[in-house]
Amino acid sequence: MKKSKTEKLRKQGSGLLVASPFLLPSLIGLMIFSLMPLIISGLISLTDWNGLDQLMQPGFFKEHFIGFENYKTILTTPEFWKTLGNTAEYIVLYIPFMLAASLLVAYLLSRPRKAIGVFRVVYYIPVLTSWVAASLIWKSVLAPQYGALNGILEIFGIEGPGWLLDEKWAMPAIVLVSVWKDMGFFGLILLSGIVGINKTYYEAADIDGANGWTKFIKITLPLLTPSIFYVVIVAMINSFQLFPQIMIMTGGGPNGATQVMVERIYQYGFRYFRMGYAAAFSWILFAIIMVFTAIQMNGQERWVHYDD
């Protein structure tokens, strides 16, 4: 038995040796374009580099090294906690509404009807639209005085809010735009999950006299939880990386009401030229995303059901 185990390990080693020339180009690319930038950004986060001085020149660290001062400053300033609070507000509003809209879209598009392919394409169009174009259009739609949305509300005798100019409504407006743009993408993922459910479950439910709502709650939703889990993970990561719609529609305003993590990283790195501070901000964001992802991964056994 010892001999067979040794022989097995030898075969695995020889197989790895044979595969090495084929893996080497990908490994080199991974090292150059992923691992090295990661290490360099970690080193930059320990400096006060302004992004203008020549990087990694002789004596660079002696001149710019400040240790963990950037991290201490970030974590002890009210701005960071306000930014984190704004991000949390976005997540709390965005994920439930996005999930509900995506589920509705997926369910409607899974029903057999004429020209269903056309409807599926139409719902996916916002996903194909660039964030720059979508944000500019919605900025016009949400304009408080001449915007289309407030114009529609006025027809029904409702005075629309200031939306992007109002501290209370700026973040909900960003959430509205994000849900509109993302529901087609996440709806497509959930649609593939619905289509993949074994039809015999529904046939058995029909025999038992179950109605559409009962079948959705008892069959579709539980068997869709793997797809929902994936959607929630991706949506959570995307939420922490919220950036283009903020920069174009509000710029972090009004009065800092829509300042978020990536927006702060951009501002400190490319507007205030505090590259070391921005790098530290990005590593803190990385740590937060990792923690939330780990929590979700560990908790999936409680509510994710796989069809065996």
Largest beta-sheet characterization: none
The low-pLDDT segments are: none
Mean pLDDT equals: 87
Measured as a percent range, the helix fraction is: over 70%
State the end-to-end distance.
Answer: 35 Å
- Proportion of beta-strand residues: under 5%
Number of helical elements = 13
Please provide the ordered H/E string of secondary-structure elements: HHHHHHHHHHHHH
* β-strand number: 0
Q: From the alpha carbons, calculate the radius of gyration and give it in angstroms.
A: 25 Å
Gross morphology? globular
Structural class by sheet pairing and helices: mainly alpha
Oligomeric composition of the shown chains: single chain
Topology record:
Elements lengths: L1 H43 L15 H5 L4 H8 L1 H33 L5 H13 L2 H11 L6 H8 L14 H26 L3 H9 L4 H29 L3 H6 L11 H11 L3 H25 L9
Please supply descriptive tags for the structure shown above:
single chain; mainly alpha; globular; 13 helices; 74% helix; 308 residues
Structure description:
With 308 residues, the protein is mainly α. 74% of the residues lie in helices and 0% in strands. It is built from 13 helices and no strands. Helix 5 crosses helix 8, helix 10 runs antiparallel to helix 13 and helix 12 packs antiparallel against helix 13. The radius of gyration is 25 Å and the shape is globular. The relative contact order is 0.12. The model has no long low-confidence stretch (mean pLDDT 87).
